[in-house]
Amino acid sequence: MKKEDRFRIYNKYDGHCAYCGKSIEYKDMQVDHLVPKNRGCYSRWSDKEGKFVVSHGDDCMENYMPSCRSCNLRKRDMSLEQFRDAIKEQAKGLLKGAAKFQVNMSIAYGLIQPAFDNPVEFYFEKFK
Ligand SMILES: [Zn+2]
Known about the structure:
two-stranded antiparallel sheet; 4 strands; 16% strand; binds zinc ion
């Protein structure tokens, strides 16, 4: 990938991860394919049209997303909707997983507030 393309991707969301919105250093940015390359037809976000359109996982600027390491690792080859569901399930899993004792105690003390009914919104969906 050309350096100037990588820089354009970094600036798509002003140096933030397109998914979680965390500020990322240029050197730490990972380039994610919004529509995974190994997928056939998928809906993808079109900035130009302001809506999801069906497409393939192309190597093009529209399909490249700046991502933090965590989001890129977690998303892997998931579609956007699969990724959204996985994030929600991951949060719910905290109540049952290895850290459930600590999570439930933290909830009891008001240190963590569960909000499982909140929608999972990606940064790029809110970005103006
Ligand atoms: Zn992220």
